[in-house]
């Protein structure tokens, strides 16, 4: 369990959740994908601007870095990025289902990759650049 010195306690990803992520990645990439566990400091309440340590699962595929964050009980966020200055998330900031969160970030990446390949100047469907 991650402990914040001020307030929020967020449980690590469970074995079941990690198994589920691995299954989604295998389905998408047609191979076993290595994942890494980490902790990331996120601003969960924009009004306070305080950061909270959150469990994260990271993976790298197709020259892209992906991360799924657990930000509370049944609360998940995800993003993909190429460089620290080129980060993207889904159109929905937070999900109550891990499956929806991981699927959404994989779809947003797929759409972004397709749109970038076709030199479309509009934002990719289902993704937004993080500033």
**Rough outline:** globular
Structural class: alpha+beta
> What is the residue-mean pLDDT, rounded to a whole number?
88
Strand content: 35-45%
How many individual helices? 2
| SSE topology string | EEHEEEEEHE
Distance between the termini: 30 Å
Low-confidence residue ranges:
120-124
Can you list the strand order of the major beta sheet?
Answer: 3-4-5-6-7-8
Number of domains: 1
CA-atom Rg in angstroms: 15 Å
Structure description:
By secondary structure, the chain is of the alpha+beta class. 27% of the residues lie in helices and 39% in strands. The chain has helices at residues 15-29, 98-117; strands at residues 2-3, 9-10, 35-43, 51-61, 64-72, 75-83, 86-90, 127-130. The strands form two sheets. The chain has a six-stranded antiparallel beta sheet. α1 runs parallel beside α2.
């Amino acid at each position: 369990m991650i402990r914040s010195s001020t307030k929020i306690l967020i449980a690590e990803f469970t074995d079941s959740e990690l198994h589920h992520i691995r299954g989604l990645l295998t389905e998408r990439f047609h191979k076993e994908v290595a994942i890494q566990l980490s902790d990331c400091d996120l601003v969960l309440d924009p009004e306070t601007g305080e950061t909270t340590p959150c469990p994260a699962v990271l993976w790298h595929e197709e020259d892209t870095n992906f991360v799924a964050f657990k930000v509370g009980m049944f609360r998940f966020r995800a993003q993909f990025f190429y460089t620290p200055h080129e980060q993207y998330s889904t159109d929905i900031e937070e999900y109550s289902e891990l499956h929806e969160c991981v699927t959404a970030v994989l779809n947003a990446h797929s759409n972004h990759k397709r749109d970038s390949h076709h030199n479309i100047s509009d934002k990719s469907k289902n993704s937004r650049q993080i500033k």
